[in-house]
Amino acid sequence: MIYLSFTSSLGARLFIAVVDGLVPDPVPFADEILTCTGVVVKIIKIRYLLRLLNTILKVGLIILGMIVIGMLITYMVS
């Protein structure tokens, strides 16, 4: 279960964490901590990717705006 909690998608990781918390085991809290760590790691990775995509989108919009302004200036001058 711990392997799956580090290699699966976020939804599967959350499901595994809930099931792991409900199933009794001989070593309490050890695997729950590792499973929740897998969920937290996935959330951090998703937040990093979203921040990166947001930055790329902003830079793209700035470049597009500069191109449009350049085209408008060229149109108005000619």
Q: What class, by secondary structure content?
A: mainly alpha
Mean of residue pLDDT values:
84
| Total number of beta strands | 0
Classify the helix fraction into a percent range. Answer: over 70%
Straight-line N-to-C gap: 68 Å
- Give the uncertain stretches in residue-range form: none
* Percentage of residues in strands: under 5%
> In sequence order, what are the helices and strands, one letter per element?
HHH
Oligomer: single chain
Whole-number radius of gyration? 23 Å
- Spatial shape: rod-shaped
- By DSSP (H or I, 4+ residues per run), the number of helices equals 3
- Largest sheet features: none
Structure commentary:
There is one protein chain. The chain has 78 residues and is an all-alpha fold. The chain has three helices and no strands. Helix 2 (10-22) packs antiparallel against helix 3. It is rod-shaped, with a radius of gyration of 23 Å. 6% of the residues are buried. The model has no long low-confidence stretch (mean pLDDT 84).
SSE layout:
Elements: H1 2-7, H2 10-22, H3 30-77
Give a quick rundown of the structure.
With 78 residues, this protein is mainly α.
Name the features.
78 residues; 3 helices; rod-shaped; mainly alpha
